Amino acid sequence: MTGAIKAWAGRRNTRILGVGAYRPRTALTNADILKHLDSSDEWIRRRSGVVTRHRADRQETLAYMAVEAGKGALKSAGITADDVDLIIVATATRMRQIPHVSPEIAFKIGAGTTAAFDVSAGCAGFVYGLNIAHSSVTSGSARNVLVIGVERLLDVTDPTDRGTAFLMGDGAGAVVVGVSDAPAIGPVIWGSDGSRSDLLQQSVAWDELRESYEKGKPEQPWPSLRMQGREVFRWAVWQMADVAREALDTAGVSVAELDAFIPHQANMRITDSLVKELKLPERVVVARDVSDTGNTSAASIPLAMEKLLSSGQVSSGATALMIGFGAGLSYAGVVARLP
Ligand code: UT7
Question: Which fold has domain 13-180?
Answer without folding.
Answer: Peroxisomal Thiolase; Chain A, domain 1 (3.40.47)
